[in-house]
Design goal:
This protein is of the alpha/beta class. Helix content is 64%, strand content 9%. The chain folds into two domains: 314 residues, ABC transporter transmembrane region fold (Up-down Bundle); 238 residues, P-loop containing nucleotide triphosphate hydrolases (Rossmann fold). It is elongated. It binds adenosine-5'-triphosphate.
């Protein structure tokens, strides 16, 4: 749904509350507009000498009543409107987040976290301001100005005088139409640069450890400084135009006041109007200056909010590019064969194909090993199996059906994917491992941890599985983090397990234990192991070797060793490296 519609719908759905609040604010301001009349009449009686102690007290009490009524009514109305604004803000943030969760990897590879945070924080806040502060001040100002005009016309001040005095104010709508679009355009640019700054800040914080290790603080400061400078420039451009706008409106108010004093004063000394009329008129004009200033404010806010609403609109219009087909069906992947035929794939906007003419079969319950140089397309292949990106139609079949005809849930529920470095959330280790199903019993969590060879390290922590991890699990070492991520994948006990270089950060002995454990636990279940080390996948039923997006060799460990090619070369290098590593300890 478009955000403009969402905003309209929200206001419509709460119209009775808004109506009530506007009524309160309007009543407060209508009462407030009564006070120039009181003072005008007081001045006339003062001049006539007809004031007594009693009437002075009476006037004071009436003025007090006006003040209290305005405070209570307008205050209550303001509270209601502000509350509605906050509710809208929370609602909008939830909707934005829900939308984010539908978007695919492609979207996130193009948009930094900082930029997305800026939508959730800055833009939503700008919209909220327009519907809380905006509605509040617009009602305030409109009612006050209207009541002042009505009161002036109802008083015995001559109409031609009222008309001449408010004449400069009639220029306001024209000024608004001149300045409005400029303010909106500049606001868009401010919000854009705010997004870029948040993005830059997020990157700098994320990489702060690298920055410190390379003593590159100065470079990073300079880079961040550039982002801040960009904001400063666009903010200043906005400030210039909005300040000018906000200065012109009160200036017109002042012009009104000058006309009032000059013309009103002239008519007073000529006795065409009374001194009371003159005081009343100047007070009414004075009363209108503050709301005029508010209107300037509100128009500024509204233009900024329109700019933010446009940005949110563009974001909400982004359609998830991975979608279920109309007739998508759930299929059980238990004992399902994986069949890949002539699969070629290039990332959107990429010049080169990352996969070329891949054909591959994984019979149910078998283990496939994938080996290859970095950038050879191993991760891309499994990403397509998870439909993180869409493979060309008919190229990947699971359980006999085109992967594009399966529901996304049946894929993501039944395939466990363990990346090289799984993100750990700032919660307990137990929750991180049981991420897929938070209510998993502790013994099951412990079993997965044992399989991933991380149980011992967790048990040593002060609160064992209930130990909370800091941001990104900083209390764990790289290898411990990787194994915690592995336990998260293993606990799913899914029909298909994909390990994408997920034992790269463990030593050879631990790796062997993990692989042996997995082979035992996953007997009869399909497993895909991607690795750079031959030791991690040599037991696979079939191993494919990839190079530049193609499968260049395939066979069992022994068959591949017997061939000349990348596999045997890597094996020789790794065996050699293994021996060299082992030698110093052997000595
Ligand atoms: N999101 C992306 N957009 C564009 N190109 C990408 C994207 N991800 C990967 N690539 C490119 O696709 C090719 C294959 O990458 P892939 O990650 O599949 O390699 P890999 O074999 O898994 O490498 P590694 O062993 O280093 O993990 C590389 O050339 C890479 O630059």
């Amino acid at each position: 749904m478009k955000p403009k519609r969402m905003l309209r719908d929200y206001i419509k759905s709460k119209w009775h509350v808004y109506g009530f609040a506007i009524l309160l604010i309007a009543a407060g301001n209508a009462i407030q507009s009564y006070y120039p009349r009181l003072l005008g009449s007081f001045t006339d009686r003062l001049q006539q000498g007809s004031l007594s102690h009693g009437t002075i007290v009476d006037y004071s009490l009436r003025l007090l009543a006006v003040g209290v009524a305005f405070g209570v009514l307008a205050g209550a109305g303001q509270y209601v409107v502000m509350r509605l604004g906050r509710l809208y803000e929370f609602d909008m943030r939830k909707k934005l987040f829900a939308h984010f969760t539908t978007l695919s990897e492609r979207f996130y590879s193009k948009n930094g976290v900082g930029k997305l945070l800026s939508y959730v924080m800055n833009d939503v806040t700008a919209v909220r301001e327009s519907i809380s502060m905006g509605i509040n001040q617009t009602t305030n100002a409109t009612i006050l100005i209207l009541s002042a005009i009505v009161m002036m016309t109802l008083s015995d001040i001559p109409l031609y005088l009222v008309f001449v005095c408010v004449l400069p104010l009639l220029l306001i709508p024209w000024i608004v139409t001149r300045f409005g679009p400029v303010i909106r355009k500049r606001s868009l640019s401010v919000q854009d640069s705010l997004g870029k700054m948040t993005e830059s800040a997020e990157e700098q914080f994320g990489g702060i450890r690298v920055t410190k290790k390379f003593a590159a603080e100065e470079t990073m400061n300079r880079r961040f400084g550039e982002a801040v400078d960009r904001i400063r420039d666009s903010q200043l451009r906005l400030v210039r135009v909005s300040s000018l706008f906000q200065a012109i409106i009160p200036f017109l108010g002042a012009l009104s006041m000058i006309v009032t004093i000059a013309y009103g004063g002239y008519l007073t000394i000529r006795h065409t109007i009374t001194l009371g009329n003159f005081v009343e008129l100047t007070l009414y004009i004075r009363l209108m200056v503050a709301p005029l200033q508010q209107i300037g404010n509100v128009i500024n806010t509204m233009q900024r909010s329109r700019a933010s609403l446009e940005r949110i609109g563009d974001l909400m219009a982004v359609e998830p590019d991975i979608r279920e087909s109309d007739g998508a069906r759930h299929r059980s992947l238990d004992q399902a064969a994986v069949s890949i035929r002539h699969l070629s794939f290039a990332y959107p906007d990429a010049e080169r194909s990352s996969l070329r003419d891949i054909s591959l079969d994984i019979p149910p319950g078998r283990t496939l090993g994938i080996l290859g140089k970095t950038g050879s397309g191993k991760t891309t292949l499994v990403k397509l199996l998870l439909r993180a990106y869409d493979p060309p139609p008919g190229t990947i079949r699971l359980a006999g059906a085109d992967i594009r005809d399966l529901t996304l849930e049946s894929l993501r529920d039944q395939i466990a994917y363990v990346p090289q470095e799984g993100f750990l959330f700032s919660t307990t280790i137990r929750d991180n491992i049981a991420f897929y199903k938070r209510d998993t019993a502790l013994p099951t969590v412990e079993k997965a941890a044992k399989q991933a060879q991380i149980y011992g390290s967790i048990a040593e922590l002060p609160e064992s599985f209930d130990t909370r991890l800091g941001e990104r699990g900083v209390t764990l070492s790289g290898g411990q983090r990787q194994r915690t991520g592995l336990a998260r994948g293993l606990i799913k006990d899914a029909p298909v397990l994909i390990m994408d270089d997920s034992v790269s950060a463990v030593d050879a002995v631990t790796e062997k234990r993990i692989i042996d454990g997995i082979r035992k636990a996953r007997k009869g279940k399909t497993t895909i192991i991607i690795a750079h080390r031959i030791s991690a996948l040599k037991h696979a039923d079939e191993i494919v070797v990839m190079d530049e997006g193609r499968i260049v060799q395939r066979g069992t460990h022994l068959e591949l060793l017997a061939q000349t090619g990348l596999y045997a070369t890597l094996h020789a290098i790794q065996e050699e490296g293994g021996r060299e590593d082992a030698e110093p300890t052997a000595r």
